[in-house]
UniProtKB/TrEMBL annotation, chains A, B:
Domain Nicotinate phosphoribosyltransferase N-terminal: 12-139
Record flagged with keyword Acetylation: no
Residue span, Nicotinate phosphoribosyltransferase C-terminal domain: 412-452
Single Gene Ontology MF annotation: nicotinate phosphoribosyltransferase activity
Domain of life: Eukaryota
The record's account of how the chain is modified after translation: Transiently phosphorylated on a His residue during the reaction cycle. Phosphorylation strongly increases the affinity for substrates and increases the rate of nicotinate D-ribonucleotide production. Dephosphorylation regenerates the low-affinity form of the enzyme, leading to product release.
Family: Belongs to the NAPRTase family.
Protein name: Nicotinate phosphoribosyltransferase
Principal EC category: ligase
UniProt-listed Enzyme Commission number(s): 6.3.4.21
GO BP: NAD+ biosynthetic process via the salvage pathway
Record keywords: Ligase, Magnesium, Manganese, Metal-binding, Phosphoprotein, Pyridine nucleotide biosynthesis, Transferase
Cofactor(s) needed by this chain: Mg(2+); Mn(2+)
Protein source organism: Gossypium schwendimanii (Cotton)
Length: 461, 461
């Protein structure tokens, strides 16, 4: 999941008041006071029982590269209310995170409310500058990873989950972050490219593509197709008129008694679009079958093209449904595929993949499961990437210690395996319980040791 | 509102299927078919009656700079399922938007459902490549501009509105887009910096800063303050011990009969923080007064520092409330300010600015209005920038014409001023009405003429 630094993430991705405070700390001679801040949230999102912690890697990159440019320093000084002193400019020039230490739970861990996910120690003025970008990077990353994990739980392990959200995401980078953290949360692929190179390339996320309704309606009839030849998949020979081959298969389907003569005339614009797409991608034929009528046109047209491709040694990928009753339509399409497998002797055709999209979310996935369906793969967009059910996670970054003086005091008893210990609720005295730990694990590991030279789990390049 | 191009917005900010379709169009010899696509939405967001159209400038920048790099072309060809032909690579190298024309409603206009906001004409393969980024750029921009406008309507014209959302926004650019389009939608300022240089600098948005709760709790007592001197605002003399001056004002407030002896001991950590902040920003003293107790500590401490500043010729900005009953607390604080104005003879002190923050949204602003309050300025974060009440706008980009063949047909009657005309609903025959137009205005203007050389309203540099 490594990748280039996000160009949006710089020391100026912060609230102005972090710099006004830095100036006030500096004026008071307090800027190097040693502070400890904890990052945590108070409530799991989506009314749920867990959160997936994400965004750590980007935080560490920010910290590793934290250095103000001369241009940024001039802008800060212009922007601070009133004039700022030359000594402060010198101080800003020398700021970096070499005196900062970061301890965190590892990225992708399931976490719970009120438990520190990230602890940042260092000079109070510098750590305050980190507050806003760190919250920005963790809040949405964890929210969308959690949302993806929740969709994965409802869909089940065996289904393929694709992220379809670019067009409705909250800005270009809202989309890029979403794509990366959906993958962490258990998605299989995204359908879109991304900045400079690609979300796929950027984070190593697989890409999946097909075509749109506009592609279907942009065709009028198969007569439009000029280049009609297609090599066999093994290269041994060439079919000179693939369009006719498709049409002959379509009539076989229309006359097949096993299909009960239910297939009449199909839409020719759609047939032309499918045929063209198959000529371009004979190894990856995935057809959107609901532009006109799924069962009377889309599925028979798909089957005709798929059977013609099969003649030339190509295996089709499947169909996509983007509207209607997905449970019913997927079931009906599956029946047709199974009949065709039997009728025309095509082993495996009954298992042709069915992808469903169209404003899917946790509730619609759950409803599909309850109704019974034949969908193999889901494309999930808006509800996933915008976290529509709850658009923000409320992580906070709280000062817990300054110059070794606690500002929030929690128990720091050292626990041992096998010993009965009394656990107290930090804020509610009446809540307490005895537990006997079977295993004791440090939740926070060092991810950025600063120049203190402590051993580090992860130092980015 | 001009600014540099967003580095995230490149031709690869698109769905993979736009490139698989481009290849299929090219294979079928259809890639240069002349297509017309309309962008519109079906329903106003937030259950409302209007939408503010935004994102156009960024779309035009994308279109003006639309050119694939060699690196991007190699990635596309690697990623397309199966192999892509050399002729297609040559085609990709030559793609730009010189044959594309863009007509649009101007940015910031109030718009309604089912009305085309943007019409893109050009070679079908190129216009399809634009679909996803254009939707991404318009959907969130229009959503957040609408959300900002709705908050402005509830808050009223006279209030100052600040955007506070960076830490909870959907990724760094979710924040940057939000900040820009909140300003378009009627906000006064943002409190944060941004990429490379700054949201402020990037878009010319004013910045406002203060301090946080952590700043307050990082101080122990005024004894910590080492540098205690402060020049008078006119530079005529220097107060050698501003800390003592503040303390003498605090006792005057504590003993003031007009305040009913209600002020007891205030929090010394808070007093130290306010004093330090005032020493750093004597011309811009804005204090967060709710870390401990607003009425017993925060407001009296603020007044003591503000009165000391006044002695030296400085006018304080005001207070910020970030918790509690904002209607009640703002009213009580206003009373204190008015009493102090009278008691100590400080004209204008009664009008000291009160800023409120803390998870504000349309409903809480409305509730405050109904209760009556003394807030002058609102800082609005999460609910604003994530569009919490509805996290996505569903704009679509529909093929309406190909090679002059309509794919959706709407009336194109030319209307004249003063003539009675029959208006029909496009989809519901029974809905119709006679109207007499008083003014006829072209909704769509040309924003990108391509090389056709038509006059253009706006061509970006």
């Amino acid at each position: 999941m490594d990748g280039p630094t996000n160009p949006m993430v710089t020391p100026l991705l912060t609230d102005l008041y972090q710099f006004t405070m830095a100036y006030a700390y500096w004026k008071a001679g307090k800027h190097n006071d040693r502070a400890v801040f904890d990052l945590y949230f108070r409530k799991n999102p989506f009314g749920g029982e867990f959160t997936v912690f994400a965004g750590l890697e980007e935080c560490i990159k920010l910290i590793a590269n934290f250095k103000l440019t001369e241009e940024e320093i001039s802008f800060i000084c212009e922007t601070l209310p009133g004039s700022c002193e030359e000594g402060f400019v010198k101080y800003l020039r020398n700021i970096d995170c070499s005196d900062v230490e970061v301890y965190a739970i590892s990225e992708g861990t399931v976490v719970f409310p009120k438990v520190p996910l990230l602890r940042v120690e260092g000079p109070v003025a510098v750590v305050q500058l980190l507050e806003t970008p760190v919250l920005n990077l963790v809040n949405f990353a964890s929210l969308v990873a959690t949302n993806a994990a929740r969709h994965r739980l409802v869909a089940g392990k065996s289904k393929m989950l694709l992220e379809f959200g670019l067009r409705r995401a909250q800005g270009p980078d809202g989309a890029i972050s979403a794509s990366k953290y959906c993958y962490i949360g258990g998605f299989d692929a995204t359908r879109w490219f991304s900045n400079n190179v690609a979300a796929g390339r950027l984070f190593g996320i697989p890409l999946r593509g097909t075509h749109s309704h506009a592609f279907v309606s942009s065709f009028m009839s198969p007569d439009e197709i000029l280049e009609r030849s297609l090599h066999r998949s093994d290269g041994s020979s060439t079919c000179e008129d693939f369009v006719s081959l498709v049409q002959s298969w379509l009539s076989k389907i229309q006359w097949a008694k096993a299909l009960g003569n239910t297939v009449g005339e199909t839409n020719q614009s759609e047939l032309a679009a499918f045929t063209s797409y198959a000529l371009a991608f004979p190894n990856n034929f995935l057809a959107l079958v609901d532009t006109y009528d799924v069962m009377r046109s889309g599925v028979p047209n798909f089957c005709a093209v798929a059977l013609a491709l099969n003649d030339l040694g190509y295996k089709s990928v499947g169909i996509r449904l983007d509207s209607g009753d997905l449970a019913y339509l997927s079931g009906e399409a599956r029946k047709i595929f199974q009949i065709i497998e039997k009728e025309f002797g095509l082993p495996g055709f009954g298992k042709t993949s069915i992808t469903a999209s169209n404003d899917l979310n946790e509730e619609t996935l759950d409803a599909l499961n309850k109704q019974g369906h034949e969908v193999d793969c889901y494309g999930i967009g808006t509800y996933l990437v915008t976290c529509y059910a709850q658009a923000a996670l409320g992580c906070v970054f709280k000062l817990v210690e300054i110059n070794n003086q606690p500002r929030i005091k929690l128990s720091e008893d050292v626990s041992k395996v096998g010993e009965r210990i009394l656990c107290r609720h930090p804020f509610n005295e009446s809540k307490r319980a005895y537990v006997v730990p079977q295993r004791v694990e440090e939740l926070l590991k060092c991810y950025w040791p600063g120049k203190s030279g402590k051993s580090s789990e992860y130092i980015p390049s």
